[in-house]
């Protein structure tokens, strides 16, 4: 029934009259009761709809919130999001599909999400709330018991809405992509087959039908549409855009479900859209939520993003990337390949500014390969963002589990003093303890607990108007911040068929996405990266991929994946021409239904000339590394800085011990992944200070850093000489990228030419090399054989007689990088006869195929489903990863591992790894002690996982501390050791975790 709303009963209500979309008028101040009466509902129907509850008092701060109140609250939040959060690009698309009414349409689709709560299955969930509903005449019989067949209100909403959308929107096409948005708002998208309610669960009879219809109609009119037919979109969003929209629906719902911001209203006479708007505006301000750039202006000069914003004198490769960002007619993919130390990340940030300004994006996500590489990038992005607006620094998130140890993160997000000593002036009174937020499952709200998820904790009103929005610290929300830096896992998570994946994707869809060190993704992770590129391409998200050592086949695959998203089909193959040189930039986009892929049309010179690097063999496969230690001593006998990179923690520890115990006369550091968080962060910072780009005055005369793969990439240090275990060619080149990295660094006379000694291999049978067992387990024999072949061409054969001799040819870095990587990962055989390259290849291929198959189980969309136009059934066989740690295991192949906090047992209680007293039961009294305790966090190797899961758990005194209550404590006895399974473990402040197999 569609009647005008400009009726006398409404005229008497104070407040503005807003023209309705279809010619009627909506008084935003009118209560929903007055609106229902104006629409001609019977008194009985008005009473029934006015009793339907949406949030129970038991789960909503002690106050019932009626269903219409929550729907309008959510719609009002969506309106604020449109004004202050949603990117211009998505606003344009929503305007396009709604006939220019994008804001109104977003409010409607966000608010209608909970209409399914108007059914017996939901209304009967709380006896106290059900009583007034029953008294009003909405009754039900016996309902299905709790369990797998329980009728959920998200699916009930789709069942309630779909037949009306089909009938009133003139067919199934528009309804077909809208109903999954309603059905999926609790994190999973069901198939159409799931829309079959158990008997009585959906509601039967005239009273229920009238009430359900009225809920939809009253909400629709209150928001501003004339009727449901008036809501019909004039076009449809692409599937990836639907996924992003679904995430915004969840975001609006979660904000509107916060009982501390939206207290319950149990009187329908107090509920109006105007009141909901006032509540939403106030909540948004209190939560300090905001978007990013908000319609960023185009730079006046094409190179301003480099010169004025980042303060760099542009190198040719940096100019090329920024110019290609200017030249693309539509959002697309940029692949920048340039040598280590070329300044790719700064160029990527400059390109991101151009892309955001041109195409209406509101922020940036920078994905790094590891936690260790994320920290310096976070600080770089902070500095960059401040140049736009100093207040934006509070919108930069660092996304990894150890962010609390980053001093800038703590300064900005946790009210700690700035690293430069300048406090925020908030004092103890203004401090908000947000440190525990990441451990709670914030995806759960109110009645979600019925579905196996814990209810969310009410948010606390923070003091100060310019601080960060702690709401974004909740689980699964990090990517929703305007600017984010974190591990690449967060991008990969958005390509998994997991619950609330839409929220992660919504965080990406309004941004420019930058992926650094993209080559670092192995074949398993690459499945998720390719899947993410498909979805980002379809969503029109610009992506910038960065690498110094990208195999051509990977470049081609990334381009094909992005273009398959743009064109909406799974089998796009657009040949990428060979670059004219190195550095180079590849551009891919789709325009007019046609795929375009281009590379740099002319050679782009590197900022520095190629340098000959002398390679030699240092045969050694002894895990103790005695020969390596001896070579290190000799290499720096007359001074110099040596970097030793080995493939195994125990080997690094053994080499360090040998040097230390042998009286090495110089600065000596050990860096690996089995150091606790505080020691690792402190040691990394020291290495960067002594060997980084600003280290001339502090650079020691003689120094050795013994490290594992942590030093392989995004580690901006400069060594005079490198000793490295053999690794796959691209990774070997990354390690060489730490050698003679900074121009102008003073070096001893013996180290004027870069020199690399390759170890971790020794002569074997028939001239074929044998490798460290650990190296083979990590990398496989085939890639090591190929790398050994290329090293042999430059250093001579791997024999004791030839080892250490002058290089036969050496490598010219960076000029030789593309050819070396291409040959290493090409299909042609390159190894000498007798090395059994074919057998190693077959074995490697079989393992790679098996890993690809394992990854496919969790990919967001199977190939055969890629062209489906809607989100229906996306989760029909989805993973149900329950925690972030389990989700990490989904996107990273390998045996599961456990993170623990190292604790030392002391007389009468416990101490943190740094000696801080904890108490008899491990009690922690304040944040400072928590910080010290959490500094002892480390990840155990997979061989200890079973024993750790069986034997370790939190200390009793941690029950009330959010950051600690789920953490396992590795309690070392007073002698400093403990037995864990069959291994005796200890923690040394210098060596880190030490593992010794117990004798049988």
UniProtKB/TrEMBL annotation:
Gene3D superfamilies on file: 1.10.3210.30, P-loop containing nucleotide triphosphate hydrolases
Q: Which InterPro entries match?
A: Cas3-like_dom (IPR054712), Cas3_C (IPR041372), CRISPR-assoc_Cas3_HD (IPR006483), CRISPR-assoc_Cas3_HD_sf (IPR038257), DEAD_box_RNA_helicases (IPR050547), Helicase_Cas3_CRISPR-ass_core (IPR006474), P-loop_NTPase (IPR027417)
> Which terms are listed as keywords in the entry?
Antiviral defense, ATP-binding, Endonuclease, Helicase, Hydrolase, Metal-binding, Nuclease, Nucleotide-binding
UniProt entry tagged with the keyword Nucleotide-binding: yes
State the source organism's domain of life: Bacteria
Q: Which family does the UniProt entry place this protein in? A: In the central section; belongs to the CRISPR-associated helicase Cas3 family.
- The molecule here is called CRISPR-associated endonuclease/helicase Cas3
Organism annotation: Streptomyces paradoxus
Upper classification of the organism? Bacteria, Bacillati, Actinomycetota, Actinomycetes, Kitasatosporales
């Amino acid at each position: 029934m569609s009647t005008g709303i400009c009726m006398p009963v409404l005229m008497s209500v104070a407040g503005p009259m807003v023209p309705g979309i279809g010619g009627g008028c909506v008084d935003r101040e009118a209560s929903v009761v007055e609106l229902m009466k104006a629409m001609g509902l019977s008194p009985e129907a008005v009473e029934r709809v006015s009793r339907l509850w949406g949030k129970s008092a038991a789960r909503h701060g002690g106050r019932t919130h009626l269903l219409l109140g929550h729907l309008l609250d959510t719609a009002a939040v969506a309106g604020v999001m449109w004004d202050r959060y949603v990117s211009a690009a998505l606003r344009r698309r929503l305007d396009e599909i709604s006939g220019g009414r994008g804001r109104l349409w977003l409010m409607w689709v966000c608010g209608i999400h909970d209409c399914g709560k108007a059914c017996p299955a939901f209304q009967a969930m709380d006896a106290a709330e059900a009583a007034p509903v029953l008294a009003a005449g909405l009754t039900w019989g016996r309902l299905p018991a709790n369990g797998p067949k329980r009728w959920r209100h998200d699916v009930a909403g789709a069942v309630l809405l779909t037949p009306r959308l089909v009938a009133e929107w003139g067919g199934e096409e528009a309804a077909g992509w809208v109903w999954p948005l309603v059905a999926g708002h609790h994190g999973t998208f069901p198939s159409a087959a799931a829309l079959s309610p158990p008997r009585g669960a959906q509601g039967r009879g005239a009273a229920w039908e009238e009430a359900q219809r009225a809920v939809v109609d009253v909400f629709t009119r209150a928001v501003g549409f004339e009727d449901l037919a008036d809501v019909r979109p004039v076009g449809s969003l692409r599937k990836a855009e639907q996924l992003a929209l679904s995430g915004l629906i969840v975001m609006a719902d979660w904000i509107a479900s916060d009982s501390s911001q939206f207290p319950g209203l149990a009187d329908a006479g107090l509920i109006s859209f105007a009141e909901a708007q006032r509540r939403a505006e106030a909540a948004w301000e209190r939560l300090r939520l905001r978007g990013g750039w908000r319609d960023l202006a185009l730079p006046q000069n094409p190179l301003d993003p480099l010169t004025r914003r980042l303060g760099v004198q542009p190198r040719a490769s940096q100019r090329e990337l920024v110019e290609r960002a200017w030249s693309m007619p539509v959002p697309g993919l940029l692949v920048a390949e340039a040598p280590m130390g070329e300044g790719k990340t700064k160029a990527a940030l400059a390109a991101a500014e151009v892309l955001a300004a041109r195409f209406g994006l509101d922020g940036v996500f920078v994905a790094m390969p590891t936690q260790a590489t994320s920290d310096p990038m976070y600080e770089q992005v902070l500095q960059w963002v401040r140049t736009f607006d100093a207040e934006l620094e509070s919108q930069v998130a660092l996304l990894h589990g150890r962010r609390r140890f980053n001093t800038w993160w703590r300064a900005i997000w946790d009210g700690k003093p700035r690293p430069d000593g300048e406090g925020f002036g908030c004092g103890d009174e203004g401090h908000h303890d947000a440190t525990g937020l990441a451990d709670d499952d914030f995806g759960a709200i109110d009645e979600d607990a019925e579905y196996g998820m814990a209810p969310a904790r009410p948010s606390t009103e923070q003091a100060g108007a310019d601080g960060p929005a702690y709401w974004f610290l909740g689980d699964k929300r990090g990517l929703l911040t305007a600017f984010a830096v974190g591990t690449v896992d967060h991008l990969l998570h958005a390509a998994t068929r997991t619950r609330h994946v839409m929220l992660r994707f919504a965080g990406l869809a309004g941004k420019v996405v930058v992926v650094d060190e993209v080559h670092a993704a192995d074949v398993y992770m690459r499945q998720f990266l390719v899947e993410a590129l498909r979805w980002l391409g379809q969503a029109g998200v610009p992506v910038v991929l960065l690498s110094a050592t990208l195999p051509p086949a990977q470049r081609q695959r990334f381009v094909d994946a992005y273009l398959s998203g743009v064109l909406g089909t799974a089998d796009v193959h657009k040949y990428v021409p060979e670059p004219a040189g190195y550095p180079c930039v590849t551009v891919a986009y789709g325009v007019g239904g046609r795929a375009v892929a281009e590379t740099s049309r002319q050679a782009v010179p590197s900022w520095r000339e190629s340098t000959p690097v002398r390679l030699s063999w240092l045969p050694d496969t002894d895990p103790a590394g005695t020969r390596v230690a001896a070579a290190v001593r000799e290499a720096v006998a007359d001074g110099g800085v040596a970097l030793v990179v080995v493939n195994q923690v125990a080997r690094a520890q053994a080499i360090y011990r040998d040097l230390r115990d042998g009286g090495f006369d110089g600065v000596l550091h050990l860096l690996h992944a089995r150091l606790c968080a505080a020691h690792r962060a402190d040691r990394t910072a020291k290495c960067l200070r002594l060997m980084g780009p600003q280290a001339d005055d502090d650079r020691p005369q003689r120094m050795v850093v013994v490290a594992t793969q942590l030093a392989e990439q995004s580690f901006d240090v400069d060594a005079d000489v490198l000793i490295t275990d053999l690794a796959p060619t691209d990774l070997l080149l990354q390690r060489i990228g730490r050698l003679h990295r900074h121009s102008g660094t003073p070096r001893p006379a013996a180290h004027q030419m870069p020199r690399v000694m390759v170890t971790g291999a020794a002569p074997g049978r028939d001239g074929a090399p044998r490798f460290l067992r650990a190296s083979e387990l990590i990398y496989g024999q085939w890639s090591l054989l190929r790398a050994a072949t290329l090293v042999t061409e430059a250093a001579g054969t791997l024999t004791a007689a030839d080892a250490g001799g002058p290089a036969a040819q050496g490598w010219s870095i960076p000029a030789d990088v593309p050819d070396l990587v291409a040959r290493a990962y090409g299909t042609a055989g390159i190894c000498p006869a007798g090395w059994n390259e074919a057998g190693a290849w077959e074995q490697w291929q079989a393992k790679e195929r098996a890993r690809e198959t394992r990854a496919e189980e969790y990919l967001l969309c199977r190939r055969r489903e890629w062209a489906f136009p809607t989100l229906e059934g996306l989760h029909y066989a989805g993973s149900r990863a329950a925690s972030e740690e389990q989700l990490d295991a989904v996107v990273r192949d390998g045996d599961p591992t456990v993170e623990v906090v190292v604790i030392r047992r002391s007389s009468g209680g416990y101490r943190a790894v740094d000696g801080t007293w904890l108490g008899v039961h491990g009690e922690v009294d304040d944040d400072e002690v928590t910080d010290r305790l959490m500094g002892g966090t480390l990840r155990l190797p997979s061989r200890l996982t079973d024993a750790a899961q069986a034997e370790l758990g939190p200390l009793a005194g941690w029950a009330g501390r959010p950051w600690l209550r789920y953490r396992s404590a590795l309690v070392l006895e007073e002698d400093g050791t403990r037995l864990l399974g069959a291994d005796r473990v200890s923690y040394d402040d210098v060596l880190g975790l030490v593992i010794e197999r117990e004798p049988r």
